[in-house]
Backbone:
Protein backbone atom coordinates (compact mmCIF):
# COMPACT_ATOMS: atom_id res chain seq x y z
CA UNK A 1 0.00 0.00 0.00
CA UNK A 2 3.03 2.23 0.33
CA UNK A 3 3.37 2.47 -3.46
CA UNK A 4 -0.32 3.45 -3.72
CA UNK A 5 0.18 6.20 -1.13
CA UNK A 6 3.29 7.42 -2.97
CA UNK A 7 1.40 7.48 -6.31
CA UNK A 8 -1.48 9.42 -4.75
CA UNK A 9 0.90 11.94 -3.19
CA UNK A 10 2.71 12.43 -6.50
CA UNK A 11 -0.57 13.55 -8.07
CA UNK A 12 -1.91 15.62 -5.20
CA UNK A 13 -0.85 15.43 -1.53
CA UNK A 14 -3.57 14.69 1.03
CA UNK A 15 -3.78 15.66 4.69
CA UNK A 16 -3.05 12.87 7.17
CA UNK A 17 -6.78 12.56 7.96
CA UNK A 18 -7.81 12.46 4.30
CA UNK A 19 -5.05 10.00 3.37
CA UNK A 20 -6.02 7.63 6.18
CA UNK A 21 -9.72 7.67 5.16
CA UNK A 22 -8.85 7.42 1.47
CA UNK A 23 -6.48 4.46 1.85
CA UNK A 24 -8.94 2.61 4.08
CA UNK A 25 -11.47 2.69 1.21
CA UNK A 26 -9.24 0.71 -1.17
CA UNK A 27 -9.71 -3.02 -1.70
CA UNK A 28 -6.77 -5.31 -2.50
CA UNK A 29 -6.53 -8.26 -4.89
CA UNK A 30 -3.72 -10.67 -5.72
CA UNK A 31 -4.71 -11.93 -9.14
CA UNK A 32 -3.59 -14.65 -11.45
CA UNK A 33 -2.89 -14.15 -15.15
CA UNK A 34 -6.09 -13.50 -17.15
CA UNK A 35 -8.09 -12.31 -14.17
CA UNK A 36 -10.97 -10.12 -15.32
CA UNK A 37 -11.32 -6.89 -13.39
CA UNK A 38 -14.05 -5.65 -15.73
CA UNK A 39 -16.20 -7.65 -18.10
CA UNK A 40 -17.81 -6.22 -21.21
CA UNK A 41 -21.27 -4.68 -20.73
CA UNK A 42 -20.89 -4.25 -16.97
CA UNK A 43 -20.56 -1.00 -15.05
CA UNK A 44 -17.02 -0.14 -14.04
CA UNK A 45 -17.26 0.28 -10.27
CA UNK A 46 -13.55 0.73 -9.55
CA UNK A 47 -10.64 2.99 -10.19
CA UNK A 48 -7.65 0.64 -10.11
CA UNK A 49 -4.01 0.94 -9.17
CA UNK A 50 -1.67 -1.86 -10.22
CA UNK A 51 1.10 -2.16 -7.67
CA UNK A 52 2.88 -4.94 -9.53
CA UNK A 53 1.86 -6.61 -12.75
CA UNK A 54 0.27 -5.73 -16.06
CA UNK A 55 -3.35 -5.02 -16.92
CA UNK A 56 -4.78 -4.67 -20.40
CA UNK A 57 -7.82 -2.62 -21.36
CA UNK A 58 -9.36 -3.68 -24.65
CA UNK A 59 -12.57 -3.91 -26.66
CA UNK A 60 -13.93 -5.80 -29.65
CA UNK A 61 -14.33 -4.20 -33.04
CA UNK A 62 -15.47 -6.36 -35.95
CA UNK A 63 -14.75 -9.47 -33.85
CA UNK A 64 -11.15 -8.31 -33.34
CA UNK A 65 -9.57 -7.35 -30.01
CA UNK A 66 -8.28 -3.76 -29.91
CA UNK A 67 -5.95 -2.85 -27.05
CA UNK A 68 -6.81 0.60 -25.73
CA UNK A 69 -4.39 0.77 -22.81
CA UNK A 70 -1.67 -1.18 -21.03
CA UNK A 71 -1.11 -0.45 -17.34
CA UNK A 72 2.15 -1.61 -15.82
CA UNK A 73 3.58 -1.40 -12.30
CA UNK A 74 2.42 1.54 -10.21
CA UNK A 75 -0.15 2.98 -12.62
CA UNK A 76 -3.79 3.95 -12.20
CA UNK A 77 -6.35 2.78 -14.78
CA UNK A 78 -10.11 2.52 -15.31
CA UNK A 79 -12.92 2.57 -17.81
CA UNK A 80 -13.43 6.30 -17.42
CA UNK A 81 -16.79 6.70 -19.19
CA UNK A 82 -18.40 3.79 -17.37
CA UNK A 83 -16.91 4.77 -14.01
CA UNK A 84 -18.20 8.35 -14.09
CA UNK A 85 -21.42 7.93 -16.09
CA UNK A 86 -22.35 4.67 -14.30
CA UNK A 87 -23.17 3.00 -17.64
CA UNK A 88 -22.13 -0.43 -18.94
CA UNK A 89 -18.66 -0.44 -20.47
CA UNK A 90 -17.69 -1.71 -23.89
CA UNK A 91 -14.20 -2.21 -22.42
CA UNK A 92 -12.73 -5.32 -20.85
CA UNK A 93 -9.95 -5.14 -18.27
CA UNK A 94 -7.85 -8.16 -17.40
CA UNK A 95 -4.44 -8.91 -15.99
CA UNK A 96 -1.91 -10.44 -18.37
CA UNK A 97 0.42 -11.61 -15.63
CA UNK A 98 -0.07 -12.35 -11.93
CA UNK A 99 -0.68 -8.94 -10.38
CA UNK A 100 -1.25 -7.01 -7.17
CA UNK A 101 -4.15 -4.64 -7.73
CA UNK A 102 -5.92 -2.10 -5.55
CA UNK A 103 -9.32 -0.63 -6.30
CA UNK A 104 -11.50 2.08 -4.87
CA UNK A 105 -15.23 1.87 -5.50
CA UNK A 106 -16.87 4.78 -7.29
CA UNK A 107 -19.28 5.47 -4.43
CA UNK A 108 -16.48 5.52 -1.84
CA UNK A 109 -14.36 7.86 -3.96
CA UNK A 110 -17.25 10.27 -4.57
CA UNK A 111 -18.25 10.21 -0.89
CA UNK A 112 -14.68 10.97 0.20
CA UNK A 113 -14.43 13.72 -2.44
CA UNK A 114 -17.59 15.28 -0.98
CA UNK A 115 -16.18 15.08 2.54
CA UNK A 116 -12.57 16.13 1.93
CA UNK A 117 -11.62 19.03 -0.33
CA UNK A 118 -8.13 17.59 -0.94
CA UNK A 119 -9.63 14.27 -2.14
CA UNK A 120 -11.85 16.28 -4.50
CA UNK A 121 -8.71 18.04 -5.78
CA UNK A 122 -7.03 14.65 -6.24
CA UNK A 123 -10.02 13.44 -8.26
CA UNK A 124 -9.90 16.55 -10.46
CA UNK A 125 -6.18 16.10 -11.07
CA UNK A 126 -6.62 12.39 -11.86
CA UNK A 127 -9.35 13.16 -14.40
CA UNK A 128 -7.24 15.92 -15.92
CA UNK A 129 -4.25 13.58 -16.16
CA UNK A 130 -6.41 10.94 -17.83
CA UNK A 131 -7.70 13.45 -20.39
CA UNK A 132 -4.16 14.61 -21.17
CA UNK A 133 -2.93 11.01 -21.61
CA UNK A 134 -5.86 10.32 -23.95
CA UNK A 135 -5.04 13.41 -26.02
CA UNK A 136 -1.34 12.49 -26.17
CA UNK A 137 -2.28 8.98 -27.33
CA UNK A 138 -4.65 10.33 -29.99
CA UNK A 139 -2.05 12.83 -31.22
CA UNK A 140 0.53 10.05 -31.37
CA UNK A 141 -1.71 7.86 -33.53
CA UNK A 142 -2.62 10.77 -35.81
CA UNK A 143 0.75 12.48 -36.20
CA UNK A 144 3.54 9.97 -35.55
CA UNK A 145 4.73 7.10 -37.68
CA UNK A 146 4.47 3.52 -36.44
CA UNK A 147 8.25 3.57 -35.91
CA UNK A 148 8.02 6.75 -33.80
CA UNK A 149 5.18 5.33 -31.70
CA UNK A 150 7.15 2.14 -31.04
CA UNK A 151 10.33 4.04 -30.13
CA UNK A 152 8.40 6.29 -27.75
CA UNK A 153 6.76 3.26 -26.13
CA UNK A 154 10.15 1.64 -25.57
CA UNK A 155 11.55 4.89 -24.21
CA UNK A 156 8.69 5.27 -21.71
CA UNK A 157 8.35 1.59 -20.74
CA UNK A 158 11.44 -0.37 -21.84
CA UNK A 159 10.34 -3.58 -20.08
CA UNK A 160 7.06 -3.77 -21.98
CA UNK A 161 8.31 -6.13 -24.72
CA UNK A 162 9.37 -8.69 -22.11
CA UNK A 163 6.03 -8.56 -20.30
CA UNK A 164 3.34 -7.93 -22.90
CA UNK A 165 2.61 -10.13 -25.94
CA UNK A 166 3.59 -8.44 -29.21
CA UNK A 167 0.04 -8.81 -30.56
CA UNK A 168 -1.21 -6.57 -27.73
CA UNK A 169 1.60 -4.08 -28.29
CA UNK A 170 0.87 -3.90 -32.02
CA UNK A 171 -2.82 -3.36 -31.34
CA UNK A 172 -2.04 -0.67 -28.75
CA UNK A 173 0.18 1.11 -31.29
CA UNK A 174 -2.54 0.88 -33.94
CA UNK A 175 -0.45 -1.27 -36.30
CA UNK A 176 -0.44 -4.86 -37.51
CA UNK A 177 1.76 -7.51 -35.97
CA UNK A 178 3.59 -7.75 -39.30
CA UNK A 179 4.41 -4.03 -39.24
CA UNK A 180 5.65 -4.33 -35.66
CA UNK A 181 7.85 -7.28 -36.67
CA UNK A 182 9.36 -5.23 -39.52
CA UNK A 183 10.04 -2.29 -37.18
CA UNK A 184 11.65 -4.58 -34.60
CA UNK A 185 13.84 -6.36 -37.16
CA UNK A 186 15.04 -3.03 -38.60
CA UNK A 187 16.35 -1.96 -35.19
Residues:
Amino acid sequence: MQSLQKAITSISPLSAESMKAFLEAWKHWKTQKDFHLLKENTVSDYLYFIEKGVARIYYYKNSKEITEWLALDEQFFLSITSFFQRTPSHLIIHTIEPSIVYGIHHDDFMSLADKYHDVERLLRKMVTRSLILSQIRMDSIQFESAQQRYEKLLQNTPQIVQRVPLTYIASFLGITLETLSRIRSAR
